[in-house]
Amino acid sequence: MTNSNIIGVHVFVSGKVQGVGYRYSTAQTAKKLGIRGWVRNCFDGRVEAIFEGTEPLIEQMVQWCHRGPDSAKVTDVVIEKVKTKSYLGFEVRETI
Predict the structure, then answer these.
(1) Is the pTM of this model over 0.90?
(2) How far apart are CA 96 and CA 82, in angstroms?
(3) Cβ-contact 82, 53 below 8 angstroms
(4) Collapsing DSSP states into helix, strand and coil, what is residue 12?
(5) Which domains are delineated in the chain?
(6) Catalytic pick from 3, 5, 23, 67?
(7) 23 classed as catalytic
């Protein structure tokens, strides 16, 4: 994967997405796909994430975000393209 093929997206997921394992399921899915970045809860009830990877993998990850784990009820996913920062892996971060 060369840096020229890598894109970045900033994602906010709304709905019943906290207290249902959404962050950890996101991290597991991202790692399985080879996506780099992070995920965390927001104080307003949303989940926020940065994903970096090839466009096809990012598309798969975003599709997953619309569903989430079985216990989640996703109502909205907002996606914005961002400049990549070359994260080394994928991590679950503290709530902001």
Answers:
(1) yes
(2) 19
(3) no
(4) strand
(5) 3-86 (3.30.70.100)
(6) 23
(7) yes
Catalytic residue among 3, 41, 46, 93: 41
Paired strand residues for 41: 47
Residue 23 is encoded by which pair of tokens?
A: 């962050």
Could you give the 3-state DSSP secondary structure of residue 67? helix
Whether residue 1 has pLDDT greater than 70: no
46 flagged as catalytic: no
Share above pLDDT 70 across residues of the chain, in percent, rounded to a whole number:
96
Please give the Cα distance from 19 to 47 (Å, whole number): 11
**pLDDT, tens digit, for every residue of 9-20?**
999 999 999 999
Nearest to 76 by CA among 63, 85, 66, 91: 66
Only one residue has tokens 């989940």, namely 47
Q: What is the distance, to the nearest Å, from the Cα of residue 1 to the centroid of all Cα atoms in its chain?
A: 19
